[in-house]
Model the fold of this input.
Amino acid sequence: MPHLQFEINKKIDPKVKDEFISSVLKIFGAVMKTDTSHVAVSLREYDKGNLSIGRSSYHDHVCLMNLDIRIGREIEKRRQLATEYFILVNTLFRIDKENQYITFTEHEGEDFHLIEKYLEDWVANDKPLSD
Done:
């Protein structure tokens, strides 16, 4: 179950959050060639002084993203996903692209567990919960 984690030091309107989560899932499914019924998304909001990136000012808004995904995606796909998320965060949250940072962590499919089963390794156009 991929876990897409977004940490920001800014409070976001609930309607914008809904649009963000929906967009995160849509982008992930399209770029990573998978169904999204098994994808988890976390959005954590902190006060302004609680997150930092070395190249930003201490008082800037920032977004830190940790994307836990199944192993098997090429660097070009991971880079495309990162770029699309940079744009999404900039557009919806008004956080400068230079103040965003993404870390990918890749796992074997069997590292992801739902009540029904653990996931298989990723293959293009998979639907893990309907297998």
